């Protein structure tokens, strides 16, 4: 019958509304139904939020699905999260393809990495891994930050290689372009070898323009009174996450006065302190790290080989 409406020729505005209720996998299946549906699913509205999952199990189908999502959505989406096996070379390569595609997306607002491990196992010889990370992760990430019109959230997933070599240029570009929009910034790392690692030369004064920052994660090596005063005066922080690894002798620590200022100016801010492989940190937890004025809400200790009883006793007297 002339003019009859069926599922394969519904107006795209109706199809887009229907597709908005589907999961990513169902959208992929729907796109193979007919040409009209595939064209409708190419609309950016259908791919505003995508969670890429790249794991070794069922690797061929998993990677094929990821590549399809990259081709279909990476340059259109607003929110992206990438869960991947960072100890599998093929998964790391596919993740780098996702990052490189996202680098061309001006609509990107949120990006979260969720690796299986704190390190990346890259193709080639281990001595060449830093160059691979620079080329396939670092530069595309910086390009993505520059390209984005309105970046709101970024987390590097505690990946040591990314944080150590690219936290500085990423923060520089975020401060320059996204000071009024960024609300979540994850720059903390997890170190495999806390007694031997590279310390990023992070310019914490670049946090000043981030007026709407609500959640920040950093390594303890960057935490000092200057940082606390900057945060107290500059942003709307509700959560500060600090990862403690090795303790450098020259690290100045923090003072009660600085923490008092932060808690007074940011009464809703909570501190989450995590010690990871921190054999030195657990020894001086009570004497150098903990302060009564800290707005401490969480204290976690992982793989530190011992319990600091004095620190536990000290915490029991804090209100």
UniProtKB/TrEMBL annotation:
- Matches recorded under Gene3D superfamilies: 1.20.1280.50, Ribonuclease Inhibitor (3.80.10.10)
Its GO biological process annotations read:
positive regulation of protein ubiquitination
Where does the secretion signal sit in this chain?
none
Query: Which PROSITE patterns does this UniProt record tie to the protein?
Result: FBOX (PS50181)
Domain called F-box: residue spans: 4-50
Q: Which protein is depicted?
A: F-box domain-containing protein
């Amino acid at each position: 019958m002339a003019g009859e409406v069926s599922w394969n020729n519904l107006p795209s505005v109706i199809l887009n509304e229907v597709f908005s209720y589907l999961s990513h996998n169902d959208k992929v299946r729907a796109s193979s139904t007919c040409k009209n549906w595939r064209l409708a699913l190419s609309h950016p509205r259908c791919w505003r939020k995508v969670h890429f999952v790249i794991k070794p199990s069922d690797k061929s189908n998993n990677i094929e699905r990821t590549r399809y999502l990259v081709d279909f959505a990476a340059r259109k989406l607003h929110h992206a999260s990438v869960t991947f096996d960072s100890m599998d070379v093929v998964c790391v390569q596919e993740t780098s393809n996702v990052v490189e595609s996202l680098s061309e997306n001006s609509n990107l607002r949120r990006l979260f990495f969720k690796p299986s491990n704190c390190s990346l196992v890259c193709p080639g010889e281990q001595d060449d891994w830093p160059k691979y990370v620079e080329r396939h992760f670092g530069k595309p990430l910086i390009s993505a930050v520059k390209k984005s019109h309105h970046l709101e959230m970024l987390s590097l997933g505690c990946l040591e290689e990314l944080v150590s070599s690219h936290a500085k240029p990423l923060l520089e570009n975020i401060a320059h372009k996204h000071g009024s929009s960024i609300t979540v910034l994850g720059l903390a790392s997890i170190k495999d070898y806390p007694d031997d690692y590279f310390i990023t030369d992070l310019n914490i004064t670049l946090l000043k323009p981030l007026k709407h920052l609500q959640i920040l994660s950093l390594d303890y090596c960057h935490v000092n009174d200057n940082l606390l005063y900057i945060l107290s005066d500059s942003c709307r922080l509700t959560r500060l996450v600090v990862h403690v690894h090795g303790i450098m002798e020259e690290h100045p620590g923090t003072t009660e006065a600085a923490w008092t200022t932060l808690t007074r100016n940011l009464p809703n801010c909570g501190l989450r302190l995590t010690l990871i492989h921190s054999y030195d940190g657990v020894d001086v937890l009570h004497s150098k790290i903990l302060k009564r004025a800290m707005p401490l809400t969480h204290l976690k200790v992982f793989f530190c080989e011992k319990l600091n009883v004095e620190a536990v006793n000290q915490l029991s007297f804090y209100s």
